[in-house]
Specification:
With 206 residues, the protein is an all-alpha fold. It contains nine helices and no strands. 41% of the residues are buried.
Amino acid sequence: MPSLATIAATGFACTIGLALATRHPAVQSLDDAIELRAGRARALQHVLRAAHIGTLPGEPYMHPTIGAASAAFILLTRRAPLLPVLAALAAASIGAILAHHAVKLVYRRPRPSVALARGKTEPAYPSGHTTDATAVLATSAFLILQQGLAPAALVVPIAVALAFVTGASRVLLGWHWPTDVVGGWCTGAAVAACAAGLYETLMRVS
């Protein structure tokens, strides 16, 4: 099992490496091809409705809500130390926002044409919704498992599925390129590892 530091370093390295890769024509061609298929699916109303639901975990009001709900579940069920749990989930939510905005300050990748037509000019890479949802979901799963409140066979698939659906919805809705979403998963996982490391540190000194 890799350490949290290794996961964080690998995640951030993948974020940077993928950002560089997206500048290659072959990678952009792959993004274009997937966006073309997503555009066809976007014309189906039931797909569009599902995508609007799927994107919710990454919304600015939702990922903090997920974190708060996870904290309440842990603290009310297990009487875990308050500060480590709250600090880890706050670090996941705030850290994810800071991380994806930091990358966007350096790498100003244009959005797909659909997003540009809607007036969305913020840089595309990495997907903020995907980063935020992944960070909070992964951190919540880590804390729930640490407290022994649910089996990994239940917690991990739920967290992975929600993070995956959030990312896929961003492509289906036309807001992001597929590689933006992969970059969001990498960044979110790295932030979650940092948040989990903060939790472990605070647990040792509490």
